[in-house]
Amino acid sequence: MKTSANTRLSIKNIYKNIILRILLILAIVISFCSLSGCQASNVKGSTAVKISGTDFLLNTVITIYLYDSDDEDILNGCFQVIKKYEEIYSRTSSTSELYALNHRTLPNNNGKYQISKELSDILSDGLYYSKLSKGGFDITIEPIVSLWDFTSDPPVLPSKESIEEQLPKVGYEYITLEGNEITFAKEGIGIDLGAIAKGYIADRVKDYLIQQGVHSAIINLGGNILCVGSKPDGVPFQVGIQKPFGTQSETMATMDITDYTVVSSGIYEKYFKEDGIIYHHLLDTKTGFPYDNNILSVTIITPRSVDGDGLSTTCFALGVEKGLELINSLPDTYAVYVTKDYQLHYSSGMKEALKVKEQPQ
Predict the structure, then answer these.
(1) Of 150, 120, 110, 145, nearest in space to 7 by CA
(2) Do residues 217 and 75 make contact, with C-beta atoms less than 8 angstroms apart?
(3) For 96-107, how does the pLDDT look when each residue is reduced to its tens digit (9 = 90+)?
(4) What is the CB neighbour count within 10 angstroms for residue 182?
(5) Do 155 and 274 contact (CB within 8 A), yes or no?
(6) Fold matches, 5-86+205-358 and 90-184
(7) How confident is the model over 171-187, as a mean pLDDT?
(8) What is d(CA 227, CA 137) in angstroms, rounded to the nearest whole number?
(9) Which of 159, 106, 134 is CA-nearest to residue 318?
(10) Cα-based distances in Å from 152 to 12, 14, 233, 271, 356
(11) Does residue 340 register a pLDDT over 60?
């Protein structure tokens, strides 16, 4: 495969774009940061983070801010929670439980594989969204995901033949989950939790923080933002919607967030260009290739981060009209799409409920 200059540049910028996105969202969240466009003087009461920590986990940069505690042990405990679940849910780590399940090395009784409660719980959420989206979101996409590599240089563009060979193995209906037992109705079925794991883990970190008496915090799992409560003085956190393919300081709108999560899926997150075509990581389960629609990104705001993960991929697959129809049917849930003309499309009541402020473009 020939690699154009644009392709090589895109690959080199993949990680840069991811890091810039993370830094941008964090800058907006901690409203005193100069990049956010928010003035600290406009916020009454304490806005200072008491303690924060950063690590590289889940193949991304993780940052946690505690606003009402300076206990290092609690902060370290957050990262231990993340490491615990990463060791269960990783698709590529040879020591993870999911890896063992995909390679059928877990204990089984007549094809019924025994799994942990932690794996069963997230699989239950994954199957729920697989059914809700009618397969637009599908946790059995692993055979297709494994064909794509958005980090290599030159990038790996799978052949149509290799994708068509794997497509028959994609189908959530081939999985039966009963408590802590799972069975597969077809050979070669593999599970990928990459589209939902960060949200599920963020919720577990929040549970841990509340158990430790922390009620004001920000959990950022590589762009999955979960705000625990509000700032100690009751002022909401401010979270921004990034302009797709924009620079670090470009946001399209900001929102007031209290005890909600903000999760985005966009074609600008991981992609490469080949012959002028953008190949991104949001894969159509029916074709095995990236979705080709009019959407640049979709952002979900909801109480549980696992729902934000599941809904962001589901709504991207459904498209603007059907996606907003779904969101409008769900309680305490909002969504905003950015289409290729850089227009914002909101779910009902979102702009008023979250005091959305659009930025001049």
Answers:
(1) 150
(2) no
(3) 999 999 999 999
(4) 22
(5) yes
(6) no
(7) 97
(8) 25
(9) 134
(10) 9, 10, 46, 11, 38
(11) yes
Is-contact 344 337, C-beta < 8 A? yes
Tell me, what amino acid is at 145?
Answer: V
Cβ atoms of residues 296 and 338 within 8 Å: yes
| Count of CB atoms situated within 10 Å of the CB of 237 | 27
CATH code that applies to domain 90-184 = 1.10.3980.10
Burial of 155 (0-12, 13-18, 19+ CB in 10 A): buried
Q: May I ask the CATH class of domain 5-86+205-358?
A: alpha beta
Residue labelled with tokens 């042990």: 73
Judged by DSSP in three states, 83 sits in: helix
d(CA 305, CA 262) in angstroms, rounded, equals 7
pTM: 0.85
Q: Which residues contact 80 (CB under 8 A, 6 or more apart)?
A: none
> What pLDDT is attached to residue 247?
73
Q: Are the C-beta atoms of residues 69 and 46 closer than 8 Å to each other?
A: no
Domain-wise residue ranges, the chain? 5-86+205-358, 90-184
Residue type for position 92: T
Identify residue 203 by its one-letter amino acid code. Answer: D
Q: Closest Cα to residue 224, out of 57, 37, 88, 76?
A: 57
Q: Tokens 């933002």 label which residue?
A: 225
